[in-house]
Amino acid sequence: MKTNRHFLSILFLIILNTSLHTQEFKLQQNGLVYDAITMNKLQFIVDSLNLKFQRCESEPTYMSQPQAIIHTLSLKTDSEKALELIKKGATFSDIAGSFPNAKTTRNLYVILTRYKNDGELKDKYRALTPSGHYAKQFTTNRGRFIDLSKGQWVYDLSKDKLTAFYLTEDAKSQRLPQKYALMIGYADCMIDTTTQTYSDEAIKSQYNWDPNSAALEFIRKFRLKGEGPKKADFENLDDYYSAVSDFNKKAVDHIDLSLETDQDLRKRLLETTEKSLQDGGSTDYFEYLTEKYLSKERALALKRSRIVVGTCSMDDRPRLHALEIARLSAETTDWSIFLRSHLDLMNDNFSRASDGSYAWESRSTYIKELESLGIGVRDLLFGATLHTDHPAENHYQGSNRRTARAIVESQNPVAYVNSILEAIEDKELDLYNRMCMTYLILNYFQQSEENRTEQKRAAKAAIETLPDFVSKELLSYLD
């Protein structure tokens, strides 16, 4: 048991040392994270998908999420009495005046999201502040929000606490203008909505190994004899880490050399790979062996069977893992997995135990790779930014903060900004999506280091076209 613990400790130190002492990703000779051969394979797929999209429905229909301006009220004492009055048709002023202990907020914006839970259709009501933060939210399966009109309530009574939204206008869902519907359609065409980055049985772990897995046992069995370097023998950590790396390299070379010449060992590698795919559990190094001596397809399947969870802000293993999935899916021309994993890199879409803002700047978006493929990147990004009432299953929803960062790193940020401002001013577009595009431009200004005086002036004019209860707060972010 002591030997096993020491072996796991050595593995962890190797990974930690690598993560803390390298830049994020190594670039290839073409200046991208994928080599020229891989990019050529992807380019061929993109050309086919662009042709496919041109043959798709020319007038896709998408409806906005149901929405309305509301006042909110929450009450714990006398909640049932207040609910009785609400059911009898009391107004917001009636309830607020009768229950002075109630917490009230005026002029928020409510968004309805419908989803299924064990086959049952449920509605989630989310009250947003003008800046986009969720002030209150609750879930219910009572009633249909879209049928509600001015002066009506939606409410939830849980654990004797009443949360209620009072509509100041009719709730509505409107058709998205065609130009924005086409963007969503393009995103769903390029990002395969029938698949996901990870397999359904994928296991989450903060470690790159499962101590009981067949994969780790395979590596452990053929490691070099001896326990490796001991920290007590070194005066400083750098020398210790260097010795650990040297020991590991010898162990790697030892297994590699054995697999080069031993057919029985290679057969055992295949058996272990199949068992790992069936039972779960793998390691980075075992996947490297699988790719080198068996196939890229099997290595990709192994990587998709585990989700690496970051231990802290500086832990780059989740992003390195996603890059490997993207690389392998690209090299095996599995486009559906490639684009999702690459977009996960762009959106920094990973789980971490903690994530401080000081680490965000070191994570690039790699928009250059997408632009080099001839993808309609603007339509792709905006299609993943806009919201619709019934998105396709597995529709990819991007992050405003990271999308803004991608725009900053793009070849032509001005073109993106002009399109965003146009959407904010478009009164045919529903208010929630106009607000989302406003959050996008504000995030862009926050992350851009250049002087954007003229663009901010144009953004101010665009935001002023929004209703007063929204624009007043949002304009303050431009000061």
Description:
The chain has 479 residues and is α+β, with helices and mostly antiparallel strands. It has helices spanning 2-20, 36-55, 79-87, 92-98, 178-190, 214-221, 237-261, 263-279, 284-293, 296-303, 317-331, 335-347, 367-372, 377-383, 400-409, 413-425, 431-447, 453-463, 468-475, and strands spanning 67-75, 103-117, 120-128, 134-140, 153-158, 161-167, 203-205, 306-308. Among the domains are: 2-22 and 197-362, no CATH class; 67-167, no CATH class. It has 19 helices and 8 strands. It has a 6-stranded antiparallel sheet with strand order 4-3-2-1-6-5, covered by helices on one side. Strands 7-8 form a two-stranded parallel ribbon. Helix 1 crosses helix 7, helix 2 crosses helix 5 (178-190) and helix 16 packs parallel to helix 18. The chain is globular, with a radius of gyration of 27 Å.
Descriptors for this entry?
479 residues, alpha+beta, six-stranded antiparallel beta sheet, two-stranded parallel ribbon, 19 helices, disordered N terminus
State the major sheet.
6 strands, antiparallel
Number of strand segments: 8
- Given the helix and strand composition, which structural class is it? alpha+beta
SSE series: HHEHHEEEEEHEHHHHHEHHHHHHHHH
- Fraction of residues in β-strands: 5-15%
Principal-axis shape: globular
Number of helices: 19
Return Rg in Å.
27 Å
Residue runs with pLDDT of under 50 for 5 or more positions: 1-22
Name the helicity range: 40-55%
Strand order of the largest sheet: 4-3-2-1-6-5
Straight-line N-to-C gap: 61 Å
- Averaged pLDDT: 86
